[in-house]
Write a structure and sequence with these properties.
By secondary structure, this protein is an alpha/beta fold. It has a domain of 209 residues: Rossmann fold (3-Layer(aba) Sandwich), CATH 3.40.50. 39% of the residues lie in helices and 20% in strands. An eight-stranded mixed sheet has the order 3-4-2-1-5-6-8-12, with helices on both faces. Strand 5, helix 3 and strand 6 form a beta-alpha-beta unit. Helix 1 crosses helix 6, helix 3 packs parallel to helix 4 and helix 7 packs across helix 11. The longest helix has 23 residues. Bound molecules: NADP nicotinamide-adenine-dinucleotide phosphate.
Length: 304
């Protein structure tokens, strides 16, 4: 079988990490990007617009898997324009990839969609896959996204949606701004500190994608996070300890609002809300985590 994996929107933080990992595991990687077509590090970047069919669909034909990472980053101010683009970029890419797969003579056996644990909203209750959805803009985005992914049937293609948690990796992602704060002795508790961070190491996330590609038993929705979520207070204290930083003053909620809007240009809910999620279905399936201890995971990423 063709060993090409197509990563739509794979030029970002998660896609780049998965591309390297897949290459190490013997797969060819093609990335669909709105940027110009080129080849780098044996990865072919093919142009698309994330919304309409085009020449790029040839890459889907006969491929081993399609993974969709496309979406405007949620790390922005939630203006009307940004909200619309956050939703549109996600729904359009799901629709056009579905169209492309339906148009294949040899469709890929599996279509994997990056989703988010944000569907559970802001809650301290334990959330397995069966937990109720929350409320608010991010929840609505996730609901529309999941609905778009599952509504249209693909007769020959298995569908897997990974609700991804707070993915800890090198060079970017959600960890980078926290490391920068801690570096300048600002890595104290954020807001109440009681909001949960459902974290996972990028190596475990990559293994989940590989399992979704190779294991025909995996289908449907999975919480793609680690088994040991922590509160923000615990996370920041562990981060400071790994970075050899002493106590840092907490940032009270009003300061987080001001800092988020005026300095970081992002929505304060990203730092002030959280969820306490478990990867129940993956655990039941026997998925084995390399990283369950936050301190060890952070040491691995920040010191190696
Ligand atoms: N990182 C995490 O911890 C995390 C957690 C939960 C869920 N997720 C979800 O997983 C997906 C990938 O995350 P990531 O961290 O890799 O994101 P990312 O670094 O922002 O990459 C997403 C990619 O999507 C493309 N894109 C951005 N805006 C777009 C637009 N308006 N229209 C079409 N394409 C657009 C970009 O590719 P080009 O510019 O090359 O076209 C970009 O590289 C996202 O949907 C994110 O919401 C991530």
């Amino acid at each position: 079988m063709n060993q090409t994996i197509v990563l739509a929107g794979g030029s970002g933080f998660l896609g780049k990490a998965l591309a390297t990992f897949l290459q190490q595991n013997g797969f060819e990687v093609v990335i669909l990007t709105r940027g110009t077509a080129h080849v780098r590090d044996h990865i072919r970047y093919v142009q698309w617009d994330g919304a309409t069919l085009g020449e790029w669909t040839k890459e889907i034909e006969g491929s081993r898997a399609v993974v969709n990472f496309t979406g405007k980053s949620v790390n922005c101010l939630y203006t009307k324009k940004n909200r619309e683009e956050i939703i549109r970029s996600r729904l359009d890419s799901v629709q056009v990839l579905t169209d492309a797969i339906l148009g294949c003579q040899k469709p890929p056996p599996v279509f994997i969609q990056a989703g988010s644990l944000a569907i559970f909203g802001d809650t301290r209750e334990i959330c397995t896959e069966e937990a109720p959805h929350g409320t608010g803009f991010s929840v609505e985005v996730c609901q529309l996204w999941e609905q778009a992914f599952f509504t249209r049937e693909l007769p020959q293609t298995r569908k897997v949606l990974l609700r991804i948690g707070f993915a800890l990796g090198k060079n970017g992602g959600a960890l980078e701004p926290l490391v920068n704060l801690a570096r300048y002795r600002l890595g104290g508790t954020v807001g109440s500190g009681n909001q949960y961070i459902s974290w996972l190491h990028i190596d475990d996330l990559n293994q989940m994608f590989l399992a979704a590609i190779e294991d025909e038993q995996l289908s449907g929705i999975f919480n793609a996070t680690g088994p040991t979520p922590v509160t923000n207070k615990e996370f920041m204290s562990t981060l400071r300890s790994v970075m050899n930083k002493g106590w840092a003053p907490p940032t009270p909620t009003p300061f987080v609002w001001i800092g988020a809007y005026l300095i970081m240009g992002t929505d304060p809910s990203l730092a002030l809300s959280g969820r306490n999620c478990l990867p129940q279905k993956l655990l039941d399936h026997g998925f084995s985590f390399a990283h369950t201890d936050l301190k060890t995971a952070l040491r691995d990423l920040l010191h190696d």
